[in-house]
């Protein structure tokens, strides 16, 4: 029997990436040079937020999406943090609420005025203190309003109820710095990757670890839940230091379902999953290309589609929510690419080529909308509920009627699980231990120099005394 190639039919096999023209980009932005492995960018249907390079604290820009072109150097910033801003995320249910975290150990909630900023914003509507080291990641709950998670370099994940402005749960199962967090569709499970080379699936309300994988051959960096398929996808590095992706069954992390090597480059691979089209996008930090695949329910699970190529390397990528896409152009995904060398933010649209100009229902199924399915109290009591879906037909967009109300509270000790988080001294990270070691070595070297100088002075005095004794006395 002669061998024949197997062709698979897919409506997304011809998806292509289209970069926006220069006048539709955002130019003249001093993008941060921080080497932290985050996107430093967040976008929703109204605003684009970018972490910027600044002196004397952390700041980020918030620009209305229609305000494209060159941004003035004195454009107003959000600049209330005392340390570098490490992550920013928009509230999925309230368009003008954004969370940020920083090296100053705080998480802050900001309310952006209608039409964008007219002057620098320094006062947050809510300041959250509970971590004792810098905070690297913030993540909003996908179905519950006013539930926010933060992960710090004190190896803790705090769950904040913004209705009361306090942490209500603490997940302390990690033994090193947390690299990534991802919720499943209804927010009942949380997947984390950690510097201790372990992948965990955690029940966030109890902090109980349901599944754990010790990834010796595949050192995990990033993780994402693949919609409602009960599968996880991780990106990482193989034992031969090649970039690699792995697919896992969330109920059994003993072995990955598949492992696939991507290339031999060194930049971190960021995964993005579109549950509506079952498409996976892989973008490497420092790369200029974006690969995309289709995820199937049967082997080989992963089917390569195509690659968007660009000569400009990307520092990070923001992703537009589904309700902000242009359905008339058959756009199924949109990136906002940070190009540090040019100070440029470039939108990249992923488009399904279709001849008909009518609404394509097969590529735009019902998608999670802008209405929360649960209140914080309901979710914390153990209720799970799928997202409230919406249709994108006729470019359907609806502004949420929810208004954020910051709680009034006094500063006090933050006690979670019987531990005062502000007083509890966390373990040192590897970098901090190294810095401490070098500081101690410098101090020892300085003390030795002082001792040697004193030793030399003592010898000089002893010699002078000896010479004085040898002087003959006058008769």
UniProtKB/TrEMBL annotation:
Chain coiled-coil ranges: 444-471
Alphabetized Gene3D superfamilies for the sequence: YVTN repeat-like/Quinoprotein amine dehydrogenase
Database matches in SUPFAM superfamilies: WD40 repeat-like
InterPro entries, per database record: Coronin, DUF1899, WD40/YVTN_repeat-like_dom_sf, WD40_repeat_CS, WD40_repeat_dom_sf, WD40_rpt
The keyword Repeat appears for this protein: yes
Sorted UniProt keywords: Actin-binding, Coiled coil, Repeat, WD repeat
Signal peptide range: none
DUF1899 domain: residues covered: 5-69
GO MF annotations, alphabetized: actin filament binding
SMART domains named in the record: DUF1899, DUF1900, WD40
WD repeats: 78-120, 128-170, 171-212
Name of one Pfam family that matches: WD40
Record-stated family: Belongs to the WD repeat coronin family.
Protein name: Coronin
Organism listed in the record: Machaerirhynchus nigripectus
Gene name for this UniProt entry: Coro2b
């Amino acid at each position: 029997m002669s061998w024949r190639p197997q062709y698979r039919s897919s409506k997304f096999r011809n998806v292509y990436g289209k970069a926006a023209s220069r006048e539709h980009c955002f130019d003249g932005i001093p993008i941060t040079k921080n080497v932290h492995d985050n996107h430093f960018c967040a976008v929703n249907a109204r605003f684009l937020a970018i972490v910027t390079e600044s002196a004397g604290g952390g700041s980020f820009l918030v620009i209305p999406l229609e305000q494209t072109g060159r941004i003035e150097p004195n454009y107003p910033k959000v600049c209330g943090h005392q340390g570098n801003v490490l992550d920013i995320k928009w509230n999925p249910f309230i368009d003008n609420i954004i969370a940020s975290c920083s090296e100053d150990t705080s998480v802050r909630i900001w309310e952006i005025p209608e039409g964008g900023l007219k002057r620098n914003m320094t006062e947050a509507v809510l300041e959250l203190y509970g971590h004792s080291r810098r905070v690297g990641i913030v993540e909003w709950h996908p179905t519950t309003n006013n539930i926010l998670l933060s992960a710090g370099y004190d190896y803790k994940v705090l769950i904040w109820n913004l209705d009361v402005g306090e942490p209500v749960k603490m997940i302390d199962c990690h033994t090193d710095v947390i690299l990534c967090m991802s919720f499943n569709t209804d927010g009942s499970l949380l997947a984390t990757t950690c510097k201790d080379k372990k992948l965990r699936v955690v029940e966030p309300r109890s902090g109980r670890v349901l599944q754990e994988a010790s990834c010796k051959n595949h050192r995990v960096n990033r993780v994402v839940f693949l919609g409602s398929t009960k599968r996880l996808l991780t990106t990482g590095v193989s034992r031969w230091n090649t970039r690699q992706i792995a697919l896992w069954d969330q109920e059994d992390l003993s072995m990955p379902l598949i492992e696939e090597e991507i290339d031999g480059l060194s930049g971190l691979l960021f995964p993005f999953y579109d549950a509506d089209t079952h498409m996976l996008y892989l973008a490497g930090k420092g790369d200029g290309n974006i690969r995309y695949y289709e995820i199937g329910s049967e082997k080989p699970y992963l089917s390569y589609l195509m690659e968007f190529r660009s000569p400009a390397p990307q520092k990070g990528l923001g992703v537009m929510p589904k309700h902000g896409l242009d359905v008339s152009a058959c756009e199924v995904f949109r990136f906002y690419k940070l190009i540090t060398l040019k100070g440029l933010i470039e939108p990249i649209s992923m488009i399904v080529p279709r001849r008909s100009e009518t609404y394509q229902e097969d590529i735009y199924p019902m998608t999670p909308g802008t209405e929360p399915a649960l209140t914080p109290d309901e979710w914390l009591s153990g209720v799970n509920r799928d997202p409230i879906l919406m249709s994108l037909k006729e470019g359907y967009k609806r502004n949420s009627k929810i208004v954020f109300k910051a709680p009034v509270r006094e500063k006090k000790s933050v006690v979670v699980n019987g531990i005062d988080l502000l007083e509890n001294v966390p373990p040192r990270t590897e970098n901090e231990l190294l810095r401490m070691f070098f500081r101690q070595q410098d101090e020892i070297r300085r003390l030795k120099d002082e001792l040697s100088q004193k030793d030399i002075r003592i010898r000089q005095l002893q010699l002078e005394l000896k010479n004085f004794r040898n002087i003959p006395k006058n008769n």
